[in-house]
Amino acid sequence: MAASLESSMIHSVNVKAIREKTGLSQEQLAQLLGTSWVSVSRWERKVAQPSSAPAARLQRLGELLARIGRALPKEEVPRFLRTPQPLLRGYRPIDLLDSDYSFRDLLAFVDAAKSGDMA
Question: What spatial distance separates the first Cα and last Cα of the chain, rounded to whole Å?
């Protein structure tokens, strides 16, 4: 059962669309995911599939980008992802894609920022 969930998650991730939404090069996305640009290239061309950890990060990154929407200009997304945020206990948003718990905190942060409620 877990394998089919993992497989469906991997197939639902459009790596190139995520990369284009963030304005990142293959190399930059690879650095954020802790992998090589060659892997990112292979995923985009559907020659290979990401393993479960990068696939989960990609899935969460896609969800985060959807949640951000147009609230942040495309050219600002890479900086946002890499910049430690005081309201996220000093973590960089990209580092909070590793677990569901921290990812929920990140989504709450984005929602609060979009609504102007950052107290």
Answer: 42
Distance CA 22, CA 75 (A): 7
Region class of 116: left (phi > 0), else alpha (psi between -120 and 50), else beta: left
Cα 73 to the center of its chain, rounded Å? 16
SS3 96: helix
Other Cβ atoms closer than 10 A to 28:
17
Strands (E), the chain: none
Domain ranges of the chain: 2-115
Number of neighbouring beta carbons within 10 Å of residue 33? 21
| Whether the model pTM is above 0.90 | no
Kindly tell me if the per-residue pLDDT of 8 is higher than 90.
Answer: no
